[in-house]
Amino acid sequence: MANEHPTPTTARSLLSAIQKITPASKPLPGYENKIVSRFPMGMCMDECYPGLYIGDLGAAKNKDYLKQVGITHVVNTAQGNKFATVDTDEAYYKDVDIKYLGMKLLDIPTANIAQFFEAGADFIDEALTSGGKVLVHCFMGISRSATIACAFLMLKRRLGAQEALETLRKNRSIYPNDGFLNQLADLDNKLRKERGEL
User: Fold this and answer.
1) Taking a C-beta distance cutoff of 8 angstroms, is the pair 192, 164 a contact?
2) Which catalytic residues are annotated (predicted)?
């Protein structure tokens, strides 16, 4: 029986859902048959949804590694030259034929990440529907990148915010900041209203 009084999504409910999940321990993509430590290699990324990877600065800047894994598209959610940003752009990947989308965002609760939800979701969807693989990254691959990946799952795969975050968290230790969780909750409530669920 349908819930007669559905509850709006809140940042607190999303945070609670994330905290209940311990991510699976998996080999570094591209090294499935070898035991390698991610961090001494200076890069870390995980496949969190078929063809969708979330990763850090080290993975994003290692073009040879990205080609080895088969990455065709990169979304840099931390483009810039400030602290905790990643100084890549379209030209950086030109020689390896990787398509690029950059977002200038700081990992602070007041940052307006929602302005990039549609563009990020469209870019990721185009990558996956064309048979590609996409790396969505920020500095550590925890907050900005996870938020954009979550918005993609909500906008293009019709997952609720909680289900989307749980899908990602099962595969990587993601942790969007409180402001980003608020913006994901707002998106979730908007989509639920459009579907007649709220």
Assistant:
1) no
2) 138
**Catalytic residue of the set 44, 48, 138, 150:** 138
Bridge partners of residue 47, in order along the sequence = 53
Q: Is-catalytic flag, 138?
A: yes
Tens of pLDDT along the chain (198 residues) come to 445 678 999 999 999 999 999 998 888 898 887 766 666 567 899 999 999 999 999 999 999 999 999 999 999 999 999 999 999 999 999 999 999 999 999 999 999 999 999 999 999 999 999 999 999 999 999 999 999 999 999 999 999 999 999 999 999 999 999 999 999 999 999 999 999 998
Three-state SS string over the chain comes to: CCCCCCCCCCHHHHHHHHHCCCCCCCCCCCCCCCCCCCCCCCCCEEEEECCEEEECHHHHHCHHHHHHHCCCEEEECCECCCCCCECCCHHHHHHHCCEEEECCCCCCCCCCHHHHHHHHHHHHHHHHHCCCCEEEECCCCCCHHHHHHHHHHHHHCCCCHHHHHHHHHCCCCCCCCHHHHHHHHHHHHHHHHHCCCC
Tell me which fold the domain 44-194 belongs to.
Protein-Tyrosine Phosphatase; Chain A (3.90.190)
Both tokens of 8, joined, read: 């709006």
